[in-house]
Amino acid sequence: KYASEISPTVTYAARFWGNHFNLTSDSEAVEFIDAIYFFCKTKLANWVETLSLLNKSGQIPSIAPLATAKLSAAVTADQKKIQFIKTILDDSSRLVSRFSTPLTYNPLQLYQSAIPWLPQSTEFYATYYKTGIMPRVSIHALHGWGPLVLEGHGENLSDIKISADDGNFAVSGSFDAAMKLWDLGTGECIASFEHDDCVNSVAISKSAVKTAAAGFLVAGTTNGRVFVWSLATGKCTRTIVVTGHDDAADVNSLRLSGDDSMLVVGQTGKFSAWLLSTEKQIILKEDEDFESGSFLVGCDAAFTANNTLVLLKIAGNDLSVVDIAGVKKRVLLTGHATEISRAILSADCQFAVSIDVTSVLNVWAVETGQCVASWESKIEPYVLFNLAISGDNKTVALRSSENGLKIWSVETLQCLRSIRLADDFGAIALSGDGNSTVAVDEATVKVFNSKEADEADYLCDYDYLSSDGTVVAFSPARSKTVQVWSVVEHRQLCSIQHLEWIRRIKISADNSFVVVQDGKSLTLWSSETGISRGSISNVDADDFEISDDGLFVVVVMKESVQVWSIETLILRSQISAVPPELNVSKKMTHHASRFTKALLFHKNQKLITGNGQGLVHVWSAESSNNCLLLKLDDLKELWDLKLFAQSAQNDDKEDPGFTSIGDIRFSGDGKFATAYSVFRYNNVTEHVECTWNLENGKCVEKVSYGDREPESLNKYGGGGESNLMVDGEWVINTGGNKKLCWVPAEKRGEMSKWKSRGNIVLFSGWNSSA
């Protein structure tokens, strides 16, 4: 609707200035540098805004590379200005990619919902962020753009390789039967090659380094075929049929020789070598002692500089390096104390990398058999993982199903990066100089700087915002530290170091202390000084909560709920998992009766617990005697606990049902409580939230989400934690597609136009017709 208000001249210039600059001669390009520098320094945000108003912001990632390509030819111009232009144009491309939604629906949100959230180290942020006018991100601001994300495959990826020398290109294979070539500088997909079967493995020739128009790519498929594709013509020039049958036919790995003349193909149980010019298999002398399974026994194969094929074999705690040309063991690599589970060869066969079941990583010099580096990777033992080593043999990357992606320097043995990915396990590759790491992440490829931290390193495993919103505590991903920040003062209050991984964090109501769980202990820390106030040991807590007045901490364990004094760290009371009056069936599973949630409102001296039977109890905080039982069976259509109990006693019932309390919250005055629970019975799932009056135990309202878990719930144990916000007498639930607003008495008269039941107003969606 804004297009008609922008002149055709401005519209054309905004869309095509990059194309015109790209078409200038090298000498003309130099003359334009000052003008483009001024434009990027003063008007670039207006350019992004204009294209957003025209609904053409998606063109920016293609316009910017056209301009930067011509800048490289302006060798006589001011190189500092050229570097600034290149950097800020790249920032603009990443900006529109990350903030496409707000820019599409409201382009002027560029200044409020995009620029303030940019990584603060970027040129775009430094140039266009206005202090005092735009919002400020004071905590957890991004440190970098994060990985370059390559998107285009329709299904999960199977393999990834980087061009050997300069690392400018990458090739990916996917279960969507496509192989794609990517420009790692711009993230552009240069070419795509389609196959009839899933692409299991890929390789890229060294002649494809200087330009994507030269050289060739290789794809191995699940039907035992290898396809060689010319980048000049985009056509398949060779097809090699590798012997095999059933699963053994899958081409699991591909490696080219240094001169790109030969190819080694790895399949389940064997390797084979091929001369590409003739498509003929190279006959290798058999080694009866060598089991050449590239995956089953963790072996690898590669060519030396003189095109000799070398195979790596795992033999318990040792490695054998076998020269296939002469069928002889070149060297035996000995040094692991436990069984080796994975090993790889470097591209030049000069080094080998191995990891054993206790997570010790060794780097070996193949010629001498010496271990040149060894360190403990600190990954979980007996997990799936992938290994990679850079072309210069100075950087090692390891990806495990439990610990994500880790990158190490072989020279210093320091962990350079620790990155979490959505996909637990997938292919990884390092550039020749080790500066870039690419990782398969489901259907995308992510390109990381191997040595500089970005936003991926600053993701939180756990974070907690204080009840008044003035203090936040968080644990950076995969770390043993907790940082406490003042939101109001924009400063870090303290940094807390633990000996084990952080499991949970909570802040007291007055923000004076933080309780952190690591392993089987809870430690209390001063929020201001970071000094420990003591610990509660040997508590394997599934959850814990701090009381409203900060005097107690309630620890939830499967077998019991414990109430500890904050001041003395003495156990004040304990409730067993199965009170006698609740033992409704001897055949009830033990898990169903375990506690899942507990909360203490000490001003009213009430302790609320929820368990695996879907029951909520209110206890006296002083005596631990059951004073009120809140049943859900008054909602017959959803929660018939009598039916549940009967089915649990019936030997003929295969599915006795399962229900569990996932979250509990008090109202601000402690007179009401809301609980979330999920019920599963005979393949039917029901998610529901109920609010009770704690004075009479009656349910005053319920919200059902049907079989869909509310979007606001974080999976936890048998249920989740609902987004119940408590503010004085207000209780608001924003989960899923239904909104429950509990209106204070003085406001009810104003709400008569809504569909109201007592003091409950239910919104079925935020829209004009609600």
Automatic annotation (TrEMBL):
Record carries keyword Repeat: yes
WD repeats: from-to residues: 150-192
Keywords assigned by UniProt, alphabetized: Repeat, WD repeat
Superkingdom, taxonomy of origin: Eukaryota
Coiled coil: none
SUPFAM superfamilies: Quinoprotein alcohol dehydrogenase-like, WD40 repeat-like
Gene Ontology cellular-component annotations: transferase complex
Signal peptide: none
Pfam families per UniProt: WD40
UniProt cross-references to InterPro entries, sorted A to Z: Quinoprotein_ADH-like_sf (IPR011047), WD40/YVTN_repeat-like_dom_sf (IPR015943), WD40_repeat_CS (IPR019775), WD40_repeat_dom_sf (IPR036322), WD40_rpt (IPR001680)
Protein name per UniProt: WD40 repeat-like protein
